[in-house]
Amino acid sequence: MTDRVSGAATDPVTGGLMQGFPPPPDKTLRMEDGSSWTFPNLRWAFSHQRELVPSVNVWRGRDAAVEFPRALRDDLDEIAFTTMDGEAMTWGQSVDVNCTDGILVLHKGVVIYEDYFGALERQIPHLAMSVTKSFVGVLAATLAHEGALDPTKLVPYYVPDLAGTAYGDATVRQVMDMTIGVQYSETYTDPDAQIWAYTAASGVTARPRDYGGPETIFDFLRSLRKQGEHGQAFAYKTCNTEVLAWIVQRATGVPIARMLSDKIWQKLGPEEDAYLLVDRIGTAMCGGGLNLTLRDLAKFGEMMRCDGAFNGHQVIPAAVVADTARGADRDHFAKSGYVTLPGWSYRNQFWVSHDKFGAYSARGIHGQAAWIAPGAEVVIARFASHPTAANGNGPLDRVSLPAYAAIAEHLLKT
Amino acid sequence: MTDRVSGAATDPVTGGLMQGFPPPPDKTLRMEDGSSWTFPNLRWAFSHQRELVPSVNVWRGRDAAVEFPRALRDDLDEIAFTTMDGEAMTWGQSVDVNCTDGILVLHKGVVIYEDYFGALERQIPHLAMSVTKSFVGVLAATLAHEGALDPTKLVPYYVPDLAGTAYGDATVRQVMDMTIGVQYSETYTDPDAQIWAYTAASGVTARPRDYGGPETIFDFLRSLRKQGEHGQAFAYKTCNTEVLAWIVQRATGVPIARMLSDKIWQKLGPEEDAYLLVDRIGTAMCGGGLNLTLRDLAKFGEMMRCDGAFNGHQVIPAAVVADTARGADRDHFAKSGYVTLPGWSYRNQFWVSHDKFGAYSARGIHGQAAWIAPGAEVVIARFASHPTAANGNGPLDRVSLPAYAAIAEHLLKT
After folding, report:
1. Does any domain span residue B157?
2. Cβ A280–B216 below 8 Å, yes or no?
3. Is residue A315 a contact partner of residue A308, using CB atoms and an 8 Å limit?
4. Looking at beta carbons, which residues of chain B come within 8 Å of A281?
5. How far away is chain B from the Cα of A286, in angstroms, using its nearest Cα?
6. Distance between CA atoms of residues A166 and A150, nearest Å
7. CA gap B2, B142 in Å, rounded
8. Contact B51 A52 (CB under 8 A)
9. Which of A196, A113, A228 is nearest to A365 (CA)?
10. Which residues does B251 contact at the CB level (< 8 Å), separation at least 6?
11. Is the peptide bond before A374 cis (omega within 30 degrees of 0)?
């Protein structure tokens, strides 16, 4: 058995993080000194991002919130499965070892399991990390479906500023599916990886006192250079989503926070406003800056499971959902070398498993997920603050993916 | 006639502020370089504070929003009055020259006038500046009424950290009514005044690159030294409200954003969440950091006008409202020398006019106000982004106070 952390043992409330006026120095978290970005501090920080970083509201509108039917079941916690490491585990145990902050299971549109831990509460938006990308992805795919965006165009057609960069000869579709050849590393365990230059430029992680790097997300994107060829292989790089967001904002003239509110959020009947972290000139961080409540994430997942129809709205065109769920080139994906994701592909900023449930998902590091399994009529929404971001969600996947499959199997039978 | 600005001529939307991806450099506003704190840029910035500075949510809860009855009247714009400078003006003109962002007039609980300008929209929270203080004031007065706070105690009884500072021998009541002798200048036109040291410590205005001042609001408060005596004169100083917020948080153990949500906000049936700007360790800025929508500010004012009862709740004890409206020592107030506010007093962080309407108000620089006139059954909520913060709201008062009185007189007759 690998060394496991425990959600209960690292609870930020019992641990006294950010409690008191002021909190004790060793329990005080700041963005500027990096303390909010270390474990276990991120167990508090992921539920309080706007208190650390400027943000822009994603307005829920004025309609009443959709209430899911509820029929909580007590048989899920004991569901047994075997992790990818060969360890026997129950669902209940998996919730703890993943440092889960919130988890909700929908079966046929009914809430059958819902729980909150640590600093998260029902009404608090949690950092969704790269789950953000999937929202941007379906927005872009919807605009393409509506004819407002042409995926065959080269990026500079919409964003001339990116001529001469890695994106000068890339198509919008290649950006949407992340088959871009760009010199950019997403290796979270490498402090010199460009992912950290991106977060520093975005202003969401600490900048050194003598920081001389890009001041904004746009400045950072303009600095990216080509490496390899486009359209040959899937390579998961957050910069691509930022480029996609730039494209859709230039194509429409509408800021992404308002576009997201108008085209998706208001139609979902969310319980709460969502928000996006912004850089120092107010640009929304579209690669990982979305914060939303657990129930509202579940609504997004359920909308996708229901072919885009939810709350009396065709929120996303059914054709866009089908195109997403169908996935993309699995050979392209295989080149990315994710050992926990064999046979998967990536389409419209979603991860597509091609498994027996037709499952596809929005995924974010440290354990954020919307897992959509049409074949089992199941949606799982999860927020977590697991210590590792290593290898994407690799370490969590070794537990979570078998756990999700076990839940789906169980629900198919009962 | 004095030189007047015009709201219409400085509209931030037609002026192109923060429009585009990215906006043009000369239309890009940042907190860090001070550009968001200059006129006309603040006409955009006051409606977008959370995009510039971290903030904490003040949750509205899950109840439906209260809808005021509406009977808009078209006779108000032509109401004539004379400014304190002897200038003839109409109400409609006064809205423009005050660089109004939003204004709403309630008469007997009915909306008779409502308009938005510039960057403000109905659902957008606007910076309320020192209107914030009045929320903190009634919270503290309510806690005192409930016995959870003793106004006769010395400040260090609740906040031992303030022993040895200006507040070491001040009572809580003296803090509530701002009769504190403390070396602190609120002169906004003086760049060396402590008000700017306070905003820099709070992280809401630019810090010089070599900044070596207090890192947090609490650090700043601990640095304050006594000057003069307590209890002798009203002296409007924002630091007092921060001390009061520290006291109520220590007395209750509840962070102010949650206290405000639980005790006031959720009961008002607001349309939107409010928020408080926070410093770099997440401490809410209680002297001026509240942002809320215009309609929700009107609800707060109407609740006060109705003796604390609103939306089926006794939100604030009637005794607290009465104690506030009754005001405090007018001789103490006179020593502060506000030429536009003759015969006024200051109680529980409200400005009390002692006029024929029994009007009292929450006031913030650049034109924020909730004007509550029980004698005329009128409440006026106003947000603005007027260029000057000189002398409190002095320049605006010379227009606004006669304008409000004219409205009240008119409504008494019609």
Report:
1. no
2. no
3. yes
4. 22-23, 28-30
5. 13
6. 19
7. 43
8. no
9. A196
10. B143, B148, B149, B158
11. no
B282·A250 Cβ contact <8 A: no
Rounded to an integer, what distance in angstroms lies between the CA atom of residue B134 and that of residue B288? 10
In a domain, B368, yes or no: yes
Domain hosting A13: range is 8-149+238-413
Rounded to whole angstroms, the Cα distance separating A123 from B125 reads: 19
Can you tell me which residue has the tokens 């003839």?
A: B88
Rg (CA), chain B: 20
Domain membership flag for residue A208 = no
If interface means Cβ-Cβ distance under 8 Å, which residues of chain A face chain B? 18, 21-23, 28-32, 48, 50-57, 59, 62, 64-65, 123, 216, 218, 246, 249-250, 255, 271-273, 278, 280-283
Tokens representing B54 are 């971290």
| pLDDT tens sequence across A126-165 | 999 999 999 999 999 999 999 999 999 999 999 999 999 9
**Distance between CA atoms of residues B304 and B268, nearest Å:** 11
How distant is the Cα of B52 from the closest Cα of chain A, in angstroms?
6
- What digits encode the pLDDT tens for the residues B210-252? 899 999 999 999 999 999 999 999 999 999 999 999 999 999 9
Q: What CATH number should be reported for the domain holding residue A246? A: 3.40.710.10
* Strand-pair partners of A126: A292
* Token pair belonging to B24: 């043009």
Q: Which of A65, A123, A280 sits opposite B32 (nearest CB)?
A: A280
Question: Side chain identity at B10, as an amino acid letter?
Answer: T
What is the distance between the alpha carbons of residues B358 and A407, in angstroms, rounded to a whole number? Answer: 65
Q: Which of B384, B374, B364 is nearest to B411 (CA)?
A: B374
What is the three-class DSSP state of B143? helix
Q: Report how many domains make up chain A.
A: 1
